[in-house]
Automatic annotation (TrEMBL), chains A, B:
One of its GO terms (molecular function) is FAD binding. This is D-lactate dehydrogenase (cytochrome). Its cofactor is FAD. It is an enzyme of class 1 (oxidoreductase). Belongs to the FAD-binding oxidoreductase/transferase type 4 family. It comes from the Bacteria. One of its GO terms (biological process) is lactate catabolic process. PROSITE patterns: FAD_PCMH. It comes from Parvibium lacunae. Gene3D superfamilies: 3.30.465.10, 3.30.70.2740, Vanillyl-alcohol Oxidase, Chain A, domain 4. Keywords: FAD, Flavoprotein, Oxidoreductase, Transit peptide.
Length: 470, 470
């Protein structure tokens, strides 16, 4: 039993002629086994399995071009796939189609230490990139949690824990190379760190979830590995007191690198899971990057601000082993939360609001969840105003899914009413499509649809995602 | 005599029926006097005067909607105008048309100190915004030199001296409200600091130079006014030595706020103009923002790096009056350079390359200019890899214009060959159109054209800019 129903889209069968052409062109790289199709027929969302008719494993950009051209010839859907970690049904071939697995397009093409950029193929994961950078003194900061591919992270405009300091994929992609729906290859920009040269095709493809082009390569910004890192954990009497601390920290210009809120229930989950003994209360996890003196100054500033807001039990650590112990609770929070209700499945939400509205948004959401009896820990990247709720539902109880969906819908509506967005970092996929018009208006939705029609006139690239065709 | 010839585009006369409709709808806000048309028939480029058929001064968003709808009814061109400070011919109504002057759309709509955002009408200038922010503890950092309007700065994806730390308009526009070519109004996003909600319409309109929509309002990011500011000037034996210092400074993670290079000729110009006694040599002007201790640390780090690269005569200042004295040379550089050759007109270039290629690009450009005998001081935002050359030509000598244009063309080709862009911050306008295909390829140009066709099917919004229609 799955939580969510798929939109009603007619599914095109794979034309026999295209099947033959795929077999001829891709040989063993084209697979149609049920196991492979199933492995590419689900992501981390709660939608039912939706299998592609076949999977092509590309190893070169040329293969991607050839595949797109074949699909274009038959006006047949094509879904690009990185690590399969997206959360909103982005990857499900609801109209039928071939899934293009890019995970073997995994070469690091160039590292330019002086320019602090790396150019990689789309299937390189963030961990693989950071492993390759280990000895350069540089690193790639964006960390959405999962070891996603950089192509996938670009396509969903991913961010994560340290976006508060380093920005999101929107800010950190210098250019992409993408195969458009007509099989043409575009490199959207050069390697300069800024440009005013025409429409921002880079930013158009970042976040387009594979609906406007298939990213095969990208250049990303790198940052100096911080000379010093310090971590801190501090507990608050209320969510609002924690948020007040975050707001003031940012207003003081403290360049905090991570700034995570775990609500009381999440802390309880963590204590049970990780044998920690944190007081069950809203708690901020912080990380500071800089020079040793700079980091010490940041910590002192935040400590003063936190104390004023009622923060207590301020623990901090600079040694790597102490830091990782301190952050263990945050890193294991997802699994810890799942353990709150063994056998449960987590429905993960994602909204982002102006930080001045964040306390109000979280408090109202907790009040909304309360009467439902649903366990729903909240944690988030509060420096950005972004947070998630994990609603723990029993997969055998359809009513719980409906309950969770209703709470989630109200949360999105609440976020929009507070000048926020229906998704801070997960993307639209299938699940957030109903909210996009409320967010960008009918004119905004029409503009997005016009762009889709212009760049993918046959509707072959991940059809039925972000905006409906008509 | 003007330097540059306009592209051959047939100019549509103003239909009598539209003229009547404009008079009816806009009364005294619609002007057709030669003086007003002339004032809106030139920007800071070297193109010949190109007058609109009339000027509408809008004071409300509704008026913009009505004007766009009228122009759409007659498929008649419309050019949005902010402060008229663009440099590449962006504002010239080459196909005829009405110019929409947005300078009276100048209300600051909201300042949200906790969220560090301001929402303004498009005609608000950056200086007006900063004046309004003076007592909030916040400021808007982007400074392209001219006191441009924020709508204009967004439309050209402007940046300037402190983009190295604070980013460009691309990074600092949270959302825009724009009137599309069909008269529909789109607000491209909410006020959350990040979003993954569909195609990035904000970034599509930022840098679109009024060709896809007319920005009437925008929300921008603000930053804490730095607690401490320090400025420094340091001289180098060569451009490359100065660049090496910049590269290492950035690799160390020093969050330098401004980082400007003035070449030897610029320093000579400044000495003559501002009665300074700087040694004539490539010189870096730096500014540091932070806490007092943080700024002191930054200065010490950069001083050490600069000395290693042969930097000499390191002067620094923290008191406002000393800082402004130190920066005087940079602030007056443009006028100082013009004085190198009284009566001359400056043709200003703008390229941006990866910083590792910057020394090579500047040295090769100096070598290229040398034999021409043209005076052409170079200065730039070198922390970003962005620089300008002011070629001083005698307006009475067409041959000098041709010479300058040829040097400028070679500079752009050089920048592109070095993985750079044809424009780092000025935009495409008319002048950089010939280079766009070399930069983004035929597929990239075709994609831009497809977007233009999709969003402005009658080609009424600033037609003939960025990409040609066919």
């Amino acid at each position: 039993m799955s939580a969510l129903s798929l939109p009603e889209v007619s599914r095109r069968p794979l034309p026999a002629e295209l099947l033959a052409a795929l077999q001829t062109r891709f040989g063993a790289q084209f697979v149609t086994s049920h196991a492979q199709r199933l492995a590419h027929g689900r992501d981390e969302s709660a939608y039912p399995d939706t299998l592609p008719d076949g999977v092509v494993y590309a190893t070169t950009g040329k293969e991607v071009v050839d595949l797109v051209k074949l699909c274009a010839d038959f006006a047949y859907p094509l879904v690009a796939w990185g690590a399969g970690t997206s959360l909103e049904g982005h990857l499900l071939p609801i109209a039928g189609g071939i899934t293009l697995d890019l995970s073997q397009l995994n070469q690091i093409l160039a590292i330019h230490p002086e320019d602090m950029t790396a150019t990689v193929q789309a299937g390189v994961t963030r961990e693989a990139l950071n492993a390759a950078l280990a000895h350069t003194g540089l690193f790639f900061p964006i960390d959405p949690g999962a070891n996603a591919t950089l192509g996938g992270m670009a396509s969903t405009r991913a961010s994560g824990t340290n976006a508060v300091r380093y920005g999101t994929m929107r800010d950190n992609v210098v250019n992409v190379t993408a195969v458009l729906a007509n099989g043409e290859v575009v490199q959207t920009g050069q390697r300069a760190r800024k440009s005013s040269a025409g429409y921002d095709l880079t930013r158009l493809l970042v976040g387009a979830e594979g609906t406007l082009g298939i990213i095969t390569e990208l250049t990303v910004k790198l940052y100096p590995q911080p000379e010093a890192i310090s971590a801190a954990v501090v507990r608050f009497p209320s969510v609002s007191a924690a948020i007040a601390t975050v707001i003031q920290t940012i207003q003081l210009g403290v360049p905090v690198a991570r700034c995570e809120l775990l609500d009381q229930l999440t802390i309880e989950a963590v204590n049970a899971h990780s044998q920690t003994t944190l007081e069950p209360a809203p708690t901020l996890f912080l990380e500071f990057h800089g020079s040793p003196a700079g980091v010490a100054e940041q910590v002192a500033q935040v400590q003063a601000v936190a104390q004023e807001a009622g923060g207590a039990d301020f623990q901090w650590a600079t040694r790597p082993e102490d830091r990782s112990k301190l952050w263990k609770a945050r890193h294991h929070a997802y699994f810890a939360c799942l353990q709150l209700r063994p056998g449960a499945r987590a429905i993960t939400t994602d909204v982002c609001v102006p930080i001045s509205r964040l306390g109000e948004c979280i408090e109202a959401t907790l009040a909304d969840v309360g009467p439902s009896g649903l366990m729903a820990p909240i944690l988030g990247h509060v420096g950005d105003g972004n947070f998630h709720m994990l609603m723990l539902v029993d997969p055998a109880q359809p009513a719980e899914y409906s309950l969770a969906e209703a709470i989630s819908a109200r949360l999105v509506e609440r976020a929009l009413a507070l000048e926020g967005t229906c998704t801070g970092e997960h993307g639209v996929g299938l699940h957030k499509m109903p909210y996009l018009e409320a967010e960008v208006g009918s004119a905004g939705l029409a503009a997005m649809r016009a762009i889709k029609h212009a760049l993918d006139p046959k509707n072959i690239l991940n059809p039925g995602k972000i905006v409906s065709w008509a």
